[in-house]
Amino acid sequence: MADIGILIGIYFAPGVLLAFPGGAMGRRYGDKATVLAAILAMLAGELLMASSSAWTVQIAGRLIAGTGGILLSVLMTKMVADWFTGREIATAMAIFVNSWPVGIAISLMLLPWIATRYGLPLVNLAVGAWILIGLGLMAFFYRAPEAAVSLEGERGSVTSETVYAVIAASSIWCLYNLGLVMIFSFGPTMLVERGWSMAAAGSTISIVLWLTAISVPIGGFLADLTKRGEAIIVAGCIGFALLTLLLSRSGQVLPAVIAVGAVCGLPAGAIMSLPARVLEPRTRAIGMGIFYTVFYAGSPVGSAIGGRLSTPLGSASAALDFGAVLLLACPAILWLFRRIVAGQNRAALPST
Questions:
Q1: What is d(CA 75, CA 63) in angstroms, rounded to the nearest whole number?
Q2: Within 13 A of 59's CA, how many CA atoms are on the CB side?
Q3: What is the pLDDT of residue 119?
Q4: Is residue 104 part of a domain?
Q5: Distances from the Cα of 83 to the Cα of 90, 98, 143, 176, angstroms
Q6: pLDDT value of position 5
Q7: Contacts of 278 (CB under 8 A, 6+ apart)
Q8: Do the domain assignments include residue 347?
């Protein structure tokens, strides 16, 4: 189990160092070309892991694949913003980020069966096949909007106010995701502490994941339909926090789990649309690099704090309570984000 945790951590380790330069690479070499290179890196990492079960090979493969995955996240978020800023941006971002839980859910269904029937190397090859499909889709079907093509390679200046706004938006995204991580990481352990079997605890908490795949796009659609994305962020994060506290204390676990899953995904699309409000097309690539640098730097710290809180307090429910506190901080940071944006707008007005 410890080795699995190390391999998972190694996959995300390049994020802190590569998210910011990844945005710069996209601006210099073009988004599509950089994404294709990122997908090839992911494929190379998977094939390397399939070639040998040696620990050093597994670590090297995870690092290579993780490097590609980080670049993919940074630049494809920017590419979605290029297409949908000023239109259904929250819905588009919700569908985009929803690929993460949906992909995990599909993997949890298929990969264990492949591993049991054919062995672990075939798992890597199966993942590699999915990566090849993504490579083909990107290579042959994606085209950038004309406005983005005309700006490729151009440099834009990022003001200090823009950096502050992007950091605030990324902090909201980081804390929101940590709230989810506390559920997935410590929810099963909490139920085991109450006497549940590990299998029953894991399958029950997984309901949150399945419902999140539904609530995320619904939240994005509502944000665009009502034009009240900030209200959905505030209501969604507060509701998610209160339901998390309920889950950590209630004996009615299944209704609480269903309620968490139905609510927790609602703010995701609106949160991810925040950077597009302050980033111009010329600064979008470098801005998303800043966004993901903060996210990848903060996520492991928050996860470690949640684990450390559970140890002295003697219960995994402490980690869920910690996640609820992080979620309640999101509306406060959103207020700060609004203040920064308002200051930018006032500065942009012509003086009379």
A1: 18
A2: 5
A3: 83
A4: yes
A5: 12, 17, 10, 25
A6: 45
A7: 162, 165, 166, 169, 287, 340, 341, 344
A8: no
Q: Tell me the residue range of the domain where 126 lies.
A: 2-151+158-341
CA distance 299 to 3: 20
For the chain, which residues score pLDDT lower than 70? Answer: 1-13, 108, 147-157, 311-314, 345-352
The whole-model pTM stands at 0.85
Whole-number pLDDT of residue 351: 53
Task: Please give the tally of structural domains in the chain.
Answer: 1
Q: What is the 3-state secondary structure (H, E, C) of 198-220?
A: HHHHHHHHHHHHHHHHHHHHHHH
The answer for residues whose C-beta is within 8 angstroms of residue 292's C-beta and 6 or more apart is 15, 19, 20, 22, 23, 70, 73, 74, 77, 170
Residue 55's CATH number: 1.20.1250.20
159: tokens are 């003001």
Q: Are 131 and 39 in contact (CB under 8 A)?
A: yes
pLDDT of residue 131: 93
